[in-house]
Batch of 3 targets.
Target 1
Amino acid sequence: MDKNTPAPDLPSATAAATNSATNSALPVTKFPLSDAVQEALAVAKRGVDELLIESEFAQKLARSEASGVPLRIKLGLDPTAPDLHLGHTVVLNKMRQLQNLGHQVIFLIGDFTSMIGDPSGRNATRPPLTREQIEQNAQTYFKQASLVLDPEKTEIRYNSEWCDQLGARGMIQLASRYTVARMMERDDFAKRFKNGTPISVHEFLYPLMQGYDSVALKSDLELGGTDQKFNLLVGRELQKDWGQEPQCILTMPLLEGLDGVDKMSKSKNNYIGITEPANTMFAKVMSISDTMMWRYYELLSWRSLDEVANLKQAVANGANPRDAKVAIAQEIVERFHSRQAAEDALADFVNRSKGGIPDDIAEIGVTGAPLGVAQLLKQTGLCASTSEAMRMIDQGGVRIDGTVISDKALKAEASTFVLQVGKRKFARITLTA
């Protein structure tokens, strides 16, 4: 489909009703499920929350094998922030696995839907982004996604191609395809309505527009997080209205962050950014719990299920779980940096664990000597506030040139020294009068 794809013609109400009745399932022809198809199905199902409808998707795979025509697999992301973290890559990993099987993956940037604001999983209206914010964020999205996907085999699209063409008349006709009652089946809408939390009318448009994307792209499979299930199902229903074979949907679980409790999020500061320095990325992976480690293997690793099972069994038999954690940390660092960076990150981590000082630390100049250590920590940005600095000193988490600082009243004299907070924050300070 070329750039500036014409918007699909909207069906009449009569045609829509007929199409819904006649296109609710795959064609009657049944294809045998070969060993290759069974293997592809197993790859698709690894780590997923739901695959709907599995029997339909198996037939799509079998038909693709028989015809040689790859499936069209869609993932839409709104550029609501300029950077991606490992939580975002869970679904990108699945896209890459399907891409490796020979299918056509479509990376859809929701530059139009971003102006509406996705209400999924929210208890308040999401502020729509401006066109300038969207364009700025979109510039880095595909570049970062290409660290996971094969960019040469990825179709990149923007949904403004067809959504802009709808106009007011088309939008009204599209809105007639869904009732308010059906929209209120969404869990987040239902909860907000029950609690008296405002729901803006434009928010009802979001799942419709996302579903319309599937019509425009003739999607065979759409991927998303578990919080996207309603929107993905809308796409399936709209395709029936347009006389298309309905897409299957695959939802991936939301990856927990470093705390092992909440989903990975920058706002919760429990994330691992895919553009972070290799040493930082490695150390963050090493900080997750031994239990959470297997979750990361399941959702982030490209190792086979048999390899992961063998690693897990080895740990159960007494092997050091640290070795397995090192392996997943190195795999992740290598993916986003290089093999050498992964080796160097391991060496840096070992050095730090022995109390050593990493090579790549910031050089910061500070004036005002003699300067209280709490104030120094705040000025250098190693602590957000003097109260946080005081807490870190009380906990024994502050060192100067490797020596633990316990005196909160200590004043640092003019000199050059290494200031350390916790296990991962270092800076070489040059303090002058």
Target 2
Amino acid sequence: MVMNQPGFLFATGIENSIPTIDGGRHRMDEMDKCGHYRHWRRDFDLVQEIGIRFLRYGPPLHTTLVGPRRYDWSFADDTFPALRRRGLVAIVDLCHFGLPDFLGNFQNPDFPAIFADYARAFALRYPWIQMYTPVNEMSICALFSALYGWWNEQLRSDRAFVTAMKHLVKANLLAMRAILEVRPDALFVQSESTEYFHARSPAAIAPAETMNARRFLSLDLNYGRRVDSTMYEYLLDNGMTREEYHYFLNNNLKHHCIMGNDYYQTNEHLVASDGSSTASGEIFGYAVITHQYYNRYRLPVMHTETNLCEGPCGDEAVRWLRKEWANVLRVRNNGVPLVGFTWYSLTDQVDWDTGLREDNGHVNALGLADLDRKLRPVGLAYRDLIRDWTEVLPTQSVCLQVPLELDEDYPEHGGSRPRPIADPGATTGAPKNTE
């Protein structure tokens, strides 16, 4: 389909992470830590001042979903109509690293169905919204909650990891299906961390290969792609039944999806012979790793998260923005249908230096603006980048255009819907790169 202007999705996000720590007794609410509940109007002002049209944004799940089919829409009723009035397009982030207290954690088998009811209710209440990320970073959520022991259930076992993974992916699939009942033209931007594991020595090749297979698990299950034999045995050995596996193969909604790729300096790892890993810093970079994921799934791509701390020189984040943007252009010029870019998040974050494992109140200078809502140099650089490239990309780059109905096109307001003229799952004939 032809997308209304703008043709490229320049985005940012307002993070609604809500994992629990300390055995579930303490919640790390990033919207609260970053002051969004108090300053949401100013935050929306900032989005507009930078020239951003698309915002990864969602209501706080733990205070909105208050029980099975019980919802408190008070905050969402303030914010989502305000976004609409401002002409800002939400990519709605419904579940970000945590669950309401009544659901407990991601070991709970009741989570997927209750979450799907919530997604349907949200879509019915805000019918103008077309773009969703039902469950954010399913792989990271399962790893940090059930294999590393950091959040939520705080478990450290392969069986707990597989259980969390299958519940997260099933919740995502059921939510997509529920939303499509309300908006048959809904688009799902599945934000997921794109990783790579480098062997430190020949003895580390085997564990690195296993980790490089495991990095695809959430998307393989979400998109109905058969996993490799090692991962199939791993899933069955750790509690997934054959019936559950075939459910994922037979219930994908891939043709409604844009593959969201998140990339940070911490996404590449060095693996030791004992299977332990440490951050390697950027070795391959976004372009190389994105080609690996694109060649596996053949879906339109959006760069859905990146950032870097401003640092002592004051220009570290600006240089990272330029590097990531160069990678985006390289991917597009190689023929991959890459449709958007995101600096995440709008404001500085709090306590991500410890992965939200400790409530220290440490401000991390990662945002386009600081917590006083003053633009950082990277915010000014992103503003200039958007201004310079918005008109160029749709006309001078060969790339699939995303089907999108902006709010003014929604029939409720007398607009007309664009006529479909292309399959959103089509490709541009990009060459197949090897991994």
Target 3
Amino acid sequence: MTPQFLFATGIENSNPTIQGGKVRVDEMEKCGHYEHWRTDFDLVQELGISFLRYGPPIHTTFLGPGKYDWTFADKTFNDLRRRDIVPIVDLCHFGVPDWIGNFQNPDFPVLFAGYACDFAKRYPWVQLYTPVNEMYICAEFSALFGWWNEQLHSDQSFVTALKNIVKANVLAMRAIAKVRPDSIFIQSESSEYFHAENPAAIRPAELMNSRRFLSLDLNYGRRVDSEMYEYLMDNGMTREEYHFFLKNNLKHQCIMGNDYYRTNEHRVCADGTTRAAGEVFGYHVITRQYHDRYRLPVMHTETNLWQGPCGDEAVNWLWKEWANVLRVRNDGVPIVGFTWYSLTDQVDWDTALRENNGKVNPLGLFDLDRKIRPVGEAYKQLIKDWRQVLPAQSVCLQVPIIMPSESNEEWAQEKQDQAQKAQQDHSTAPANVASVEP
């Protein structure tokens, strides 16, 4: 086994509901993946990519407690294994099945953990997981902005969604780790920053810059800032619920995934309203903030930009993001991978999936006719140029990445046995002690 830098892309599988839960926004369907999945996997290999952010559609797979339709998942995951493509399995991407309802449902965490456990048992060769994608954004868009799923607009509904989503992620990690002791969790989360537009905006900006960390603080068992503790308690979280997160001891199996788009930085007005700031600090500065807080290996797990009228806008953005990745690495942060998201163009993300317009967004490495875009050509060349140059930084992990083709090897089983023993050792360690350090 040779450690390698994780050059990745993803198949967009967002599936929230809108219009009071009456309309399901299924990006896999809108982007044609159900019909063209074989071709899509061909394109991944054409680019020289071995790592794919990918997951089954939860709303059509998870039919009830212990009830599943694995038909599509069996086809696709068996083919990924045959191709020796490593999936970073995205089990919940902004939506839940109709029978669960939405993220206000207190039963969601336990139900989801059961789903994650049964997935891991069915596909034991899978090692890399993002149980719940962008937990902060999912809670914010669903329960604070009122755009998706429950479509609520209060701090209390936001805290309820957040605690349910993060608890689901934690319980899923625990369940998966029992099945696959050497599993690695790459938590894809939006990396945000809020800039005060004037002195009167400093206070609301400070609050937002504290709130942006809540999902990862809870997920990694880090004590939140005192003001955020009061915020959580004032909006429905109990002490017992908070202490549950402090007892999470799987940080040693985690990679912090940082997503960065040009929309991740915000200008804050005095009244607390925000608007897009564009790229001010950039990925390098903001990722250093997150790394300084959590001290975990990092992966750049999402970025993209529209291909504009000149045709080179996305290509230039790719170059800029890669330059930021190299800057982060050269500053001593253990960064293990980079992702252009997604493989193909997306649909209706110009309205953040709030409207069902069918508008194609030219964000992909390929268009929806599966023809390569200039950024696809540029990414393919970037991978070719840098793959052998970068030293393997995955040595900072306690458990190595095992390719699907290696999963039945004797040494791979020995690694799982070692990971299981390490897991048992960590289970007896005090909270917040277990961690991965470079």
